Please model this.
Amino acid sequence: MIGLVRALVLPDGRLAGILDEQEAARYLGLAAGTLRNWRVVRSGPQYVQLKRRIGYRVADLDAWIEERLVDSRGR
Model:
């Protein structure tokens, strides 16, 4: 279930509190194209789409990372 996202559009057109594709890619250490490809195949972290803009909440990126945590100690 995707929660309601309240966003403030800044004067430069960016959404406050939400990372754009480039920022999210840097946050995850990935190429922006990887995030684009994942959206097409419905993989990767949750994202927000407001009209033509795509954004990522840091909390969603962190949750996606946590879901992939592997315990290398075999527990």
